[in-house]
Amino acid sequence: MAQTRELTCIRCPMGCALTVELDDSGAVTSVTGNSCPRGAQYGRDEVTNPVRTVTTSMPVVGASHAHMVSVKTQTDVPKGKVFDVIAALAGLTAQAPVAIGDVLVHDVAGTGVDVVATSNAR
């Protein structure tokens, strides 16, 4: 049975209202409502393999000023693994000094994705 999915694109601040049409097998047949090619790709990806970037903060041990450092997954992780990533980061700390781009956790929650610092802590 063919399906229609209504989504709001999150690839840019425009927030386009997308309509994604799927055929009986679940394959995307069209994406409409997007203002740019990124929106079309987002619509296709969101209904077939939704992913997210996880951002949070991590306590820093030994820092003179910053006691927390902001972090994010280096690339997207499957949407269904977001809470696993958060759980894997709970209770972890970083050791000062921390620089933007430092890998603080390798292969978080078995996703194959590293967690990197997005701020400095000295």
Task: Write up what this structure looks like.
By secondary structure, this protein is α+β, with helices and mostly antiparallel strands. Helix content is 16%, strand content 34%. A five-stranded mixed beta sheet has the order 8-5-6-10-9, with no helix packed on it. The longest helix is centred in the middle third of the chain and has 12 residues.
Distinctive features:
single chain, 122 residues, alpha+beta, 10 strands, 16% helix, 34% strand, elongated
How would you concisely characterize the structure shown here?
The chain is α+β, with helices and mostly antiparallel strands and 122 residues long.
Instruction: Count the beta strands.
Output: 10
How much helix is in the residues?
Answer: 10-25%
**Shape from CA axes?**
elongated
Distance between the termini: 57 Å
What is the alpha-carbon Rg in Å? 18 Å
Provide the spatial order of strands within the biggest beta sheet: 8-5-6-10-9
Point out poorly predicted stretches.
none
Q: Provide the structure class.
A: alpha+beta
Output the number of helix runs: 2
Task: Return the average pLDDT rounded to an integer.
Answer: 95
Biggest sheet statistics: 5 strands, mixed
Order of helices and strands: EEEHEEEEHEEE
| β-sheet strand percentage | 25-35%
Give the secondary structure arrangement, pairings included.
Blueprint: E1 3-8, E2 17-22, E3 28-32, H1 37-48, E4 51-52, E5 55-61, E6 68-73, E7 77-78, H2 82-89, E8 94-95, E9 103-105, E10 115-117
